[in-house]
From TrEMBL, chain A:
It holds the Pfam family DUF6510. This is MJ0042 family finger-like domain-containing protein. InterPro entries: DUF6510. It comes from Streptosporangium canum.
Automatic annotation (TrEMBL), chain B:
It comes from the Bacteria. It comes from Streptosporangium canum. It holds the Pfam family Oxidored_molyb. Gene3D superfamilies: Oxidoreductase, molybdopterin-binding domain. This is DMSO/TMAO reductase YedYZ, molybdopterin-dependent catalytic subunit. Residues 38-182 form the Oxidoreductase molybdopterin-binding domain.
Length: 90, 202
């Protein structure tokens, strides 16, 4: 059997294209209640050590974003299968 | 509830010459900022419960009457939030974790605190003992408001304030460390303000 694996660096171009878009317009599904929504529809809590986006339907955590000096952490475990529009792409 | 003692840990001992000696990177605030990662739970005392589970699965429960029947301490401590504000000489009443856990048999090394609303935070069990941590039920002479974690919150003032879980509902004693809500997304696993342990790798 052929081992069709590449080094993860090969995903750089594809990931750069996706992460350059406005993520608030991306749609995903709440891992807790399965509601589909745009991230812009989440309830955002900012008076906290990081940004916390919660599902408007069930209050479950969709994403957490922590910004430190020169570093950031993004946890998206509460939202599955984000769909992005790619402007200018066909 | 009975108040058996006044405890003033030495967190104020580092001040010199009248100017507060704050941990590195902190500034002094006089108000009491409210930070929250979600909706504020409003838990009536009548339905409030605290559960401690050990590494063997043994569970210990306290309702509000059971908790407040335990000996209560008054204590004055400094608070240091990782968002860089510090508030000095805050006055609380609560039940020492030494008192709460006195009848709990465990050899666990780690604790994971859970809150109403789903928040979690982890710390070594030894940081909850020896007069370092309380289940706080009153602040500044008043019942603890929901905004500040009432009816009861964990208070571990020698660590950054995110470790002091508001609306505490359970403490799980574990053989393995389990990173909590902020510890799993960039914030330091231990969070000592005097060593400025804000983020992973600090």
């Amino acid at each position: 059997m052929t081992d069709n694996r590449l080094d993860g660096n090969a995903a750089g171009g594809a990931l750069r294209e996706v992460f350059a878009v406005d993520l608030t317009a991306a749609t995903g599904q709440c891992s807790n209640c399965s509601q589909r929504l745009a991230l812009a529809e989440s309830r955002l809590y900012t008076h906290a050590p990081g940004l916390v986006g919660r599902c408007p339907g069930c209050d479950a955590v969709l994403f957490r974003l922590v910004r430190g000096p020169g570093r950031a952490w993004l946890d998206l475990r509460g939202v599955t299968c984000l769909q992005f529009a790619l402007p200018g792409a066909t | 509830m009975s108040v058996i003692g006044i405890v003033s840990p030495g967190f104020s001992g580092r001040r010199r010459g009248g100017a507060p000696d704050l941990p590195p990177g902190q500034y002094l605030t006089e108000d009491f900022p409210v930070l929250s990662a979600g909706p504020t739970p409003h838990v009536p005392k009548e339905s409030w419960n605290l559960t401690v589970t050990t590494e063997t699965g043994a569970a210990h429960h306290w309702d509000w009457a059971g908790l407040t029947a335990l000996p209560t301490e008054r204590f004055t401590v400094d608070l240091h939030c990782v968002t860089k504000w510090s508030k000095l000489a805050t006055a609380w009443e609560g039940i020492s974790l030494d008192t709460l856990l006195a009848g709990v048999e465990t050899s666990a090394e780690y604790a994971l605190a859970h809150s109403y609303g789903g928040y979690t935070t982890n710390l070594p069990l030894e940081d909850l003992l020896d007069g370092q941590a309380w289940i706080a039920v009153r602040y500044d002479g008043e019942d603890l408001t929901p905004e500040h974690g009432g009816p009861a919150r964990l208070l571990v003032p020698h660590l950054y304030l995110w470790k002091s879980a508001k609306w505490v509902s359970a403490i799980r004693l574990l053989n393995e460390d389990h990173p909590g809500f902020w510890e799993s997304v960039g914030y330091h696993n231990y969070g000592d303000p005097w060593r400025e342990q804000r983020y992973w790798g600090d």
